[in-house]
Amino acid sequence: MSSAYRRLIRKITIENLWIYVLSLLRDGPLYGYEVRDKIFKRFGFRPGKITCYIVLYKLEKENLIFSKQVDGKSKGAPRRYYFITEKGLKEVEKAKKFLIELTGAL
Question: Based on the structure, what is the number of domains in the chain?
């Protein structure tokens, strides 16, 4: 694998993790730890644990997602679940359109 291809993969995955997170949240709410596992299962790469939380924090700060704490089931610890906002849905659609245009031009 060439270094140019490796750079492309890194730029499309890790450096644009927000697209993957929002895409997953379109399917329903997730808690932080779950995001990393779902990215690996669905998209085939595993971002760093802290990286996912940083992205969640930034997305929430931009009002693309919101979170709320939910009590744990049967004595489990409460978890913070993340939900996509209407603004977040629009942002995913804009990104999708851009990527479709990009790949169509290739």
Answer: 1
* Residue 73's CATH number: 1.10.10.10
The strand ranges marked E within 19-100 are 30-31, 65-70, 79-84
pLDDT digits (tens, 9 = 90+) for 24-69: 999 999 998 899 999 999 999 999 889 999 999 999 999 999 999 9
End-to-end Cα distance, the chain: 20
Question: How far is Cα 30 from Cα 84, in angstroms, rounded to an integer?
Answer: 10
Amino acid type, 57? Y
The secondary structure of 37-55 as a DSSP string is: HHHHHHHS----HHHHHHH
pTM, two decimal places: 0.85
